[in-house]
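Why do we care about 3D structure at all? Because function follows from shape, and shape follows, mostly, from sequence. That is the central idea of this module. The next example makes it concrete: a single protein chain, its amino acid sequence, and then its structure expressed as tokens.
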Amino acid sequence: MKTSATLGLTALWGQSAEACRLALVLALDVSSSVDAREDALQRDGLARALLAPQVQAAFFASPDPVALAIFEWSGRYNQSILQDWVLIETPASLASVSESITITPRSHDDYPTALGYSLVFAGTLLRRAPDCSLHTIDVSGDGLNNEGFEPRKAYNAFPFEDITVNGLVINVPETSAAREEPEELLKYYETEVIRGPSAFVVVANGFEDFARAMEVKLIRELGALILGENVVPLERGSGG
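And the structure:
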């Protein structure tokens, strides 16, 4: 697990809740079921989604910035920070994060899917986030938990008060022993993973669709849904 130094963390600690509207953690699945091509599509998809016009508009819809952190996860002890906490105050800072995601090397490719552990890691990351009004974990994945404790056990054993957890399910058309049927995976995320009264799930139809799904998800999480003919429909969601 990497413990990289924070980017400007000393300054961030001084920010009040009024100065930061949302602390958002993005968690990317790099378990063994995700091959090198799919991982590249996922990273490129996130990088492109961050720079999408509607996502940028959502980031800067308010004068109060968003604090962003990104990590990748797989086995129970295999979480690696890709981007430590940074306040997204300008388009340049968002572009810098986008660029860094495309060049950051993958930490692991041979570990199982430990969703419960990834959520605890994300919750711990939020405990040292800037002081923001809202706290959200955005976890992406292509499979069920198959190592360590389940997400619900994580929620019962660790402090997740006032934290919303949303999910991005990656459905891969060619099912195999390493992947579940699409409806099974979606149901699992809806009943076991997402948490909070406004929590929701977005579905990507394969890793090729990751950028579109992440764009939809970020717009909704940032609280800047734009009404009009160009809006993509919202995905299924429920409270936890």
